[in-house]
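User: For a benchmark we're assembling, each entry needs the component sequences followed by a predicted structure for the full assembly. Here are entry 17's components. Please fill in the structure.
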Amino acid sequence: MNCDNNANRIRRKLLIEVARLQLKDRLEDNIDRLPLALFPRQGTDIRCCVYKDRAITKYRLMAIMGHGVEKETNELKPLSDYARESLQRAAPAPDHSVLTVIDEACSACTRARHYVTNVCRGCVARPCMINCPKDAIQIVDSRAVIDGEKCVDCGKCLKVCPYHAIVHIPVPCEENCPVGAIFKDETGREQIDYDKCIFCGNCLQECPFGAIMECSQIVDVIQKIKQGHHVIAMIAPALAGQFPVEYDRLLSAVLKLGFHQVVEVAAGADIAAEHESRELQEKIAAGQPFMTTSCCPAYLQAVDKHMPELRPYVSSTFTPLHYSAERVKQEHPDGITVFIGPCVAKRQEALHDRYVDYVLTSEEIGAMFVAADIEIADCEPFVMDSPSGNNGRGFALIGGPTHAVMALTESKDIQSTLIDGLDKKSIRLLKTYAKGKCPYNFIEVMSCQGGCVSGPCNITNPRSAEAKIRKIIEKPTLPAPKV
Amino acid sequence: MDTIKVEICTGTTCYVMGAGDILELNDHIDEHMAQNIEIVGSNCMDLCKDGQYGKAPFVKVNNTLVSEATVLKVVEEIHRQMT
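Assistant: Structure for entry 17:
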């Protein structure tokens, strides 16, 4: 559901409201009123009644203020208490959750299964019955019925039914989790197994009930800015495609939010490409069969948790963010670094990178613009002192890292391939590569299909985001004018 | 029939609230409708600041304002004006 939908709109509205209250210094005083204001007693409900909507809104607001819903111990604890804790927090809690499941919002979908609808005519041919390899279909009262005990969800019946009477009812979060990390508890509601989760963000994007939320750091970042710290915005290459304005105006808008400095992570991507190119040539010369990229944090998580056999083949290069943040912290040891990008897994990465303090998403920075009444199109274009190279900026797109690495690689013996999106199939493929059946020696892996432009926290359709980035990177990088 | 002008506000508020997807309107409509409309992205229409206009995102179909616009609402309005 990488598209406009109500669950996204609700989350964005709440992000805007929270940021707005905080900017006006009213967060702690007014947050308890927010669920009521959004769902007044005489208003329309989305679920069964406004009271349920309010209850769920409360949990959404908890997550937006950075509190995992699972950690609630006292249901009576008001949002204002959580707000106070968030405002006083000096740094992310060591046990900061990246994702949280709002159990109240989870509709506890019925288990995934194949189901015969009343479109079934009980026909004479009965291809569903004849073709079922498990003998799971019987005709009862002139209609096919699937025996759930026997059915293995192979989908043959669905394909052969001439009336399209058989449907597959999925559990969207489970269906889209590439690593089986989300599962039902005894009540049928979903839980995330963090020993398996790779933080790709698919569940968050796919749940039609918006039951999975990120634990945001938006309040923390706004607070640091308000307290007058030297806060540095580190812009992901993918952010350039997220707003309907020129890139230089977007950078200017970010500064207008109160960030002291804006840095392109594309610069770190250029460093990563250099490192990766050198390493690739060394490894191939040393006889290693292949090497994979290491820029995608969800892929790194997947290797660690699900494909340990691939570890020796992953480039030892740090992520672009790491290089950029390291450089920034050397210049400003007391500065606070905030990565702004499309990614859930980056938040997990940042928790373990001493140079990165916070992560905001494209959606969250968008909400901050709205809350601060910043019209991006009206911002004066900002001229960077040292703009990044276009190869680094291309890391937002699938194929971008390969392009950047190849541009720096002299060796002509590179056979490269792309893993465009991590799913069950591509994970299986990568595992066979680790077993020695790899016809390539350089593999670029991106967890999101299409690259970071398709990230789960983006606000722009991936196709238009890609077009926008292509326009930027096809322009030659101009040196900054001398002042 | 005169071309119907579909003006989609791409001011920051409207964009964050989903105008980006409405800009892709052509993906959702048939050729006949596509030939009869002109899709324009507009700078901030200054409607989001004023409560009486409902809520973002805003789209103008000729002179009719659609608030809390979705692809469906916009298509319905175009259809109404076409018939």
